[in-house]
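Summary for the lay section of the report: proteins are chains of building blocks that fold into shapes. Here we show the chain for Large ribosomal subunit protein bL31B and then a coded description of the shape we predicted for it.
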Amino acid sequence: MKPGLHPQYRTVVFHDTSANHYIKVGSTIATDREIEIDGMTYPYVTVDVSSASHPYYTGKQKTFTNEGSAARFNQRFGRFFNPKDKQ
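The coded shape description reads as follows.
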């Protein structure tokens, strides 16, 4: 490999600030900040959302019943979109 061509790949600590969760993962992201964890110093990056805080991964998302929404739509607008009524 040519020197200076590829970014440096190393272990980086990502900190999810909303859940106060730290994730160590290999990355090439550039950062000037560092943090010490378990006696080792790692590059440090903060993130707003990760799998520890995102509603989809935590199971705390709101779910909407499609049946209720569809039924409400058909009740309000079904007479305009019903192909059997058009002749």
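Put simply, here is one thing we learned. Residues 10-77 form one domain.
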